[in-house]
Amino acid sequence: MTRTSRVAMRIGRLALGLILLAFLAATIPFGQIIEQQERVEAAAAELARLENENLFLADEIAAMETPAEIERMAREKLGYVMPGETAFVVLEPEGGVATPVETPVQDAVDRSQPWWRSLWNFLTGADVG
User: Fold this and answer.
1) For the chain, how many structural domains are there in total?
2) Which residue has the higher pLDDT, 83 or 110?
């Protein structure tokens, strides 16, 4: 074999290899395979997130089925009260947030004055101020 025939043979093999590579690239959709693999990974991550959320919600449901939680939700969301209790509704002023007013706490019974004086001050409004 002459040197030119060996070079021609190598060029022929190289050309055949490139043609085979081009044929494989055209017939096997590598881009689609990679894209589908990325979609599968994204779907698996979403599935894991939803399963975690499902477990959290199942725990929340289990907690809500206790009598204490049912009572708490009935009081907060529906305004229910137990028999013998008094319900109060506090309305917020329009255009603003209600600010709590601090009132001084007084003893239930003022022992420094007679009972009738405390009653008289209450009736006349002298104890407010």
Assistant:
1) 1
2) 83
